[in-house]
Amino acid sequence: MSGEGNHGNQPAQQNGVENQRTSLPAPMFSRNDVSIWSILKKCIGMELSKIAMPVIFNEPLSFLQRLSEYMEHTYLIHQANTATDSVERMKCVAAFAVSAVASQWDRTGKPFNPLLGETYELIRDDLGFRWVSEQVSHHPPVSAFHAEGLKEDFVFHGSIYPKLKFWGKSIEAEPKGLITLELPKYNESYTWTNPTCCVHNIIVGQLWIEQYGSVEVINHKTGERCSMMFKPCGLFGKELHKVEGFILDKSKKRLCAIYGKWTDCLYTVDPAAFDAHKKSDKKNLDEKKGNKQSSVDEEPEEVPPPDAETVTVIPGSELIWKITPRPDNSAKFYAFSSFAMHLNELEKSMEGVIPQTDSRFRPDICAMENGDIDLASAEKKRLEEKQRMARKNRTKSTDEWKNRSAALGPRWFQQGPNPHTKAQDWLYSKGYWGRNYTNLPEIY
């Protein structure tokens, strides 16, 4: 599949598996004393990718590392591979698409913007995959990734261009870019795009996150698709975190309904049972509205009530995904999941094996993780300045960088059309796992 030899017999590569840490070296800082308004008041309606934010609003991970959290529920891909029916496979793939964004829940810290040429790798024997990602463009910021099953049983790849906008009370992140999953056993490919993520109460009040927008997972071989809607919170938080949709055949006939919450779980059920439940739900809501006059001043910006978290299970439903619970100490450590907690861990076995461009070597992230906010801030400024200077020097030789000149270091991705949608994408150009990292750019 990758043409890079046997995946299983290289013990030096096995990172992130043995004795994973269960906490970070230092707990997170309080953001209460810092006014984000003083920074953002000039930015309303603007894109934020060029605004330098104070390090206190970050979490100690690069966006490349944050992307690798897509893989936390890889077992759903393995499950899809064992299903002989294409609709059963679609259920697993749709659940994987939802689970891939579940790590956003309560994560109000901003990941560090990757530097051009920065890379991140993750190998998980226990979950059966290896992952490599690279920051392939700085303006606009584009992160490309490529994961593959250790038994060559799947390929998962994509490129993400996150557009951040500030709207006065909230910051909206629109993750532009296409995601592709290939299952060679069935010669199937699936594509989709992620929903929009929004952090509310940026200026005052308790921060909370919602994701909204439509996500359509398409099976390019069978023509089947799963059309899901991530619902915005709405008044009284009734729709908070809800996901609803249908798996359709190529003639758009509904084969089954899918529903749940991206923060918790996902179920499938017969479409008729789902419609009947929705009708009775609406009837109950209308009756409640008749009994109780709703307040005109109610705004969805307020913190939604905690009971909005529950999912009503429709009789006859099948559970297809349940989130892995966060560890007890998660709130102390940036709301990280157990999976996220070890992403920046640098093990002795990695030194001299992984490239110097890996995010684990970033001094600003390491300083923040170790609790030194002043050093993190100074290093972040230094790296941003170094990147600006490198960009100036490169302006005359942009073609060199794009063409993987040896002087600028190898590039693991190249631009080209996605093989299934023909849309512009960044595709893995192989070679990374050969472990030949000469002539890499000195980015830190």
TrEMBL record:
<keyword id="KW-0445">Lipid transport</keyword>
<feature type="compositionally biased region" description="Basic and acidic residues">
    <location>
        <begin position="279"/>
        <end position="290"/>
    </location>
</feature>
<feature type="coiled-coil region">
    <location>
        <begin position="373"/>
        <end position="400"/>
    </location>
</feature>
<keyword id="KW-0446">Lipid-binding</keyword>
<keyword id="KW-0813">Transport</keyword>
<comment type="similarity">
    <text>Belongs to the OSBP family.</text>
</comment>
<dbReference type="InterPro" id="IPR018494">
    <property type="entry name" value="Oxysterol-bd_CS"/>
</dbReference>
<dbReference type="GO" id="GO:0008289">
    <property type="term" value="F:lipid binding"/>
</dbReference>
<protein>
    <recommendedName>
        <fullName>Oxysterol-binding protein</fullName>
    </recommendedName>
</protein>
<dbReference type="InterPro" id="IPR037239">
    <property type="entry name" value="OSBP_sf"/>
</dbReference>
<dbReference type="GO" id="GO:0006869">
    <property type="term" value="P:lipid transport"/>
</dbReference>
<keyword id="KW-0175">Coiled coil</keyword>
<feature type="region of interest" description="Disordered">
    <location>
        <begin position="279"/>
        <end position="309"/>
    </location>
</feature>
<dbReference type="Pfam" id="PF01237">
    <property type="entry name" value="Oxysterol_BP"/>
</dbReference>
<dbReference type="InterPro" id="IPR000648">
    <property type="entry name" value="Oxysterol-bd"/>
</dbReference>
<dbReference type="GO" id="GO:0005737">
    <property type="term" value="C:cytoplasm"/>
</dbReference>
